[in-house]
Amino acid sequence: MGIDWKRKLSSRKFWAALSALVCAIAVVCGAGESIITEVSAIISAAGVLIAYILGESMVDASSGKEDDGTEF
Prior knowledge:
Blueprint (H helix, E strand, L loop, with lengths): L4 H5 L2 H17 L4 H31 L9
């Protein structure tokens, strides 16, 4: 059995760990505080967006709905 990527990518713990890793690497490379803050914000925003998309797709799949792109 492989990694359940839908579950992993929708995990807040995963995104927090990824953000911490990237920020730690940025510190080691000498990035300034503002750059590190911006990178952390971008990773957090991407995590929220991906978790939302995956969560909605799981809800749609469980209810048998297909997304035809007409709902706003």
